[in-house]
Amino acid sequence: MRKTKIWIDIITPSEVLFFNSLISSLSADFLITIAKHAENVHLSKILHMKGMSVGCHPAEKGMLKYIGVLKRIFSLLRQLNYFDVAFTFQNPYPVFLSKIMRKKVINFADNDSAWILFNREIGELTFKHSDYLICPKAIPIDNLIRLGADKDHIIQFNGYKEDIYVADYTPDPNFRQKIPFREFIVIRPEALFAVYLREKGTIVPQLLKILSKENINIVFLPRNERERSYAKNLSVYIPQKPINGLDLCWYSHVVLTGSGSLAREAACLGVHAVSFYPGKLLSVDKQLIKEGKIFHSRDPYEIAEYVSLHYGKRKRSKINTEKSKKVKMEVIKILEEVLETIKT
């Protein structure tokens, strides 16, 4: 019997990790396209993911964003051959192209804000035209329905997106050789270029100065030259090439980020996590904050106090990913059942 052929399109680094974990656990053939954006291509090569780089996912806003997206859509159309079903993580490209090609779409989600790609209308269309929506139970179903999802096609699981790939994680015993510190924290700035953020100010320069004065070792992860300038004249370490984010989390004392995934990755690994995300918090983040696994603040002094409380005091025991493994098994079972339904 012919295996199901699944098309996966990737536009963010966390999707590389997420889908790589699913691919290793599903019996299917895969067609993988990867947008040239952030560390996507480099990370996919490290993981030996057999995908092809297709177009750029634009970081600009306004008309340039629309033009960039249209260019990538045409690039994808030239590369796509036969597939049975598309997997996407709140990525509109597979949703729209699959509908044109009359194929099914399984959409994974952890964002219950209507920011996707451009605006609320596009976000709602993405949810509305997904044949199945798989997401954490931390997201209220009513939020998803308001975004256009069909209640009968929503399937929820216990846990978080990050659990899926944390389940496969084994710490690199040689990782410390890649970092000039034995004890350190990690800081990643807010993604102020993202279309879903209206906030234009960053607290990172102030945060870096405060923590540097306290002689705290910092691994700083800027995305571009503008963010790199936040650390000007400060003694922080900026990796020259992409480093495994899970290793950074596991070996750090505290992980601080203005985005979402890195804080959730740390939380799933049992590492102290700080979110200084400037927008409306997602339901998954609210739940982790409620559980005490993420600390959220936009006050640099309050954050510095939290870091000082935990820096240098972490005692690492053997990593425990049993919870994450259960989450992954649950999601794999859901997918196998959905794929069987589509096949029949």
Question: What does the model show?
Answer:
The chain is an alpha/beta fold and 344 residues long. It folds into 2 domains: 5-162 and 324-343, Glycogen Phosphorylase B (Rossmann fold, 3-Layer(aba) Sandwich), CATH 3.40.50; 175-310, Rossmann fold. The chain has 14 helices and 12 strands. The chain has helices at residues 13-23, 40-46, 63-79, 92-100, 120-128, 141-146, 161-166, 204-213, 225-228, 245-251, 261-268, 283-290, 300-310, 322-343, and strands at 5-10, 29-36, 52-56, 85-89, 104-108, 132-136, 154-157, 185-188, 218-220, 254-257, 272-275, 295-296. The chain has a 7-stranded parallel sheet, with helices on both faces. β10, α11 and β11 (272-275) form a beta-alpha-beta unit. The radius of gyration is 20 Å and the shape is globular.
Q: Could you give the topology of this structure?
A:
Blueprint: E1 5-10, H1 13-23, E2 29-36, H2 40-46, E3 52-56, H3 63-79, E4 85-89, H4 92-100, E5 104-108, H5 120-128, E6 132-136, H6 141-146, E7 154-157, H7 161-166, E8 185-188, H8 204-213, E9 218-220, H9 225-228, H10 245-251, E10 254-257, H11 261-268, E11 272-275, H12 283-290, E12 295-296, H13 300-310, H14 322-343
Parallel strand pairs: 1-2, 1-4, 2-3, 4-5, 5-6, 6-7, 8-9, 8-10, 10-11, 11-12
Helix pairs in contact: 1-2, 8-13
- Morphology call: globular
User: Major β-sheet, in short?
Assistant: 7 strands, parallel
String of helices and strands: EHEHEHEHEHEHEHEHEHHEHEHEHH
**Estimated share of beta-strand residues:** 15-25%
Number of helices: 14
Overall helicity: 25-40%
Spatial sequence of strands, sheet with the most strands: 3-2-1-4-5-6-7
The appropriate CATH architecture of the largest domain is 3-Layer(aba) Sandwich
Question: How many structural domains can be distinguished in the coordinates?
Answer: 2
Mean pLDDT: 90
Q: What is the oligomeric state here? A: single chain
**Separation, N- and C-terminal Cα atoms:** 13 Å
- Name of the CATH class of the largest domain: Alpha Beta
Rg, alpha carbons: 20 Å
What name is given to the CATH topology of the largest domain? Rossmann fold
Extended strand count? 12
Class computed from helices, strands and strand pairing: alpha/beta
